[in-house]
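Support request from a user on the community tier.

User writes: "When I paste my structure tokens into the form, the page sometimes reloads and wipes my input. The last time it worked, I copied everything first. Here is what I submitted, just in case something in the input itself triggers the reload:"
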């Protein structure tokens, strides 16, 4: 087994926190583990828990539409993971103790993927990956550079479903992401060039 498969196996059998008791499936992630752009959500919802895939409910469909606007596609040139790999009951925010138990899975995913860009989807992953006092309403779309990786955050697609007035801001942020990809990523990211 290669290190990626080993990590996946470990994750699928994880019992480091109480979410293991209520999950149906562990949601390890989806996409191309060689991608240069990694998206990190919060945690699986009901549909994701049932199917074992990230972002496959309503918010996921909106995410796929947003990605296609800038020629990104989970089937080819990005990877999508979550802060926690198991569904928090009733879709509550993952507790700090659950995030602490799970973060090493994400850290290992990040090391193995080696992304040039990490896009946090929503405040939960931005608080962990960008800064503990991150304010998504004020800082979405801004860039930080740390350990050779460019980081930014977008509003979570579920927030865009609840509040469509946030969508124009996200469109601008997506254009900023596209510009950053052109600046730092491989030419395979140019329009239409699937990897
Ligand atoms: N919301 C998330 O943050 N992640 C998912 O996988 C689904 C919904």
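"...and here is what came back when it finally went through:"
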């Amino acid at each position: 087994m290669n290190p990626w498969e080993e990590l996946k196996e470990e994750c699928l059998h994880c019992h480091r926190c109480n979410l293991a008791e209520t999950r149906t499936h562990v949601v390890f992630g989806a996409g191309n583990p060689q991608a240069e752009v990694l998206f990190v959500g919060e945690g699986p919802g009901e549909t994701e828990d049932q199917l074992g895939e990230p972002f496959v409910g309503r918010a996921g469909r909106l995410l796929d539409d947003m990605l296609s606007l800038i020629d990104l596609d989970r089937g080819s040139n990005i990877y999508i993971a979550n802060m926690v790999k198991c569904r928090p009951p009733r879709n509550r925010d993952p507790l700090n103790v659950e995030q602490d138990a799970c973060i090493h899975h994400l850290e290992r995913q990040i090391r193995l993927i080696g992304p040039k860009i990490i896009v946090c989807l929503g405040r939960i992953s931005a608080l962990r990956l960008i800064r503990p006092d991150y304010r998504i309403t004020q800082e979405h779309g801004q860039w930080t550079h740390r350990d050779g990786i460019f980081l930014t955050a977008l509003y979570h697609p579920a927030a865009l479903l609840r509040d469509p007035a946030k969508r124009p801001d996200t469109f601008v942020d997506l254009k900023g992401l596209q510009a950053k990809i052109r600046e730092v990523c491989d030419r395979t990211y140019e329009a239409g060039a699937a990897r």
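Agent notes: The reload is a front-end session timeout and is unrelated to the input. The beta strands are 30-31, 37-41, 79-82, 117-121, 144-146, 149-154. Residues 27, 41-45, 48, 54-55, 59-60, 82, 121 surround uracil (CB under 6 Å). Escalated to web team.
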